[in-house]
Design a protein that fits this description.
The chain has 163 residues and is mostly helical. Helix content is 65%, strand content 0%. The chain folds into two domains: 47-76; 78-163, no CATH class.
């Protein structure tokens, strides 16, 4: 049996070159297209483009959110665990406000980032507080969160000592 010399890559390229590739400019006529059909095709194309743009915006938003959280955590914001007298809830708020100011975080995003730093009992409280808000209520503002948070976790002893 005669030996065959195989040159890798060349025969594969030759096979591809020999195949007849369709011409992108060739259009197979399918009969006359009415204005209504043409309009419908344009509308469908417009919808596809809109959907793709929306998906890209959604992906960008997820990246932006992840990036914002990463930057926030790099600032070493305080966390708040419970309502014991060891932790000062006002100090938690003040320190977070410093971070928010440096990072130029908008009001409603401040609430979500602050919630990220709540642990144990305070996280449970936040989840219940958020669920207790009316369904049609706008996103919680920082002032609304601060009032509810301090109302719940600022111990009477600290209030009296600061007055």
């Amino acid at each position: 049996m005669p030996s065959r010399k195989v040159v890798r890559g060349r025969s594969a390229r030759r096979n591809v070159e020999e195949q007849e590739l369709p011409n992108a400019h060739e259009v197979q006529p399918q009969g006359k297209v009415t204005n209504a059909e043409f309009h419908e095709a344009i509308q469908m194309l417009r919808q596809v483009v809109t959907n793709q743009a929306g998906q890209q915006r959604g992906n960008r938003q997820e990246v932006d959110d992840t990036s914002r959280i990463r930057k926030f955590l790099r600032m070493n914001p305080p966390s708040f665990t419970d309502s014991s007298t060891r932790e000062d809830p006002e100090n938690f708020i003040e320190e977070l406000e410093k971070v928010f100011e440096v990072m130029h975080i908008v009001d409603t995003e401040q609430v979500e980032l602050a919630a990220y730093q709540l642990k144990n009992i305070t996280k449970t409280w936040f989840d219940q507080w958020k669920e207790g808000r009316a369904e049609d209520a706008p996103p919680a503002s920082w002032a609304c969160f601060e009032e509810a948070y301090l109302g719940r976790f600022f111990p009477r002893e600290l209030k009296e000592a600061k007055v």
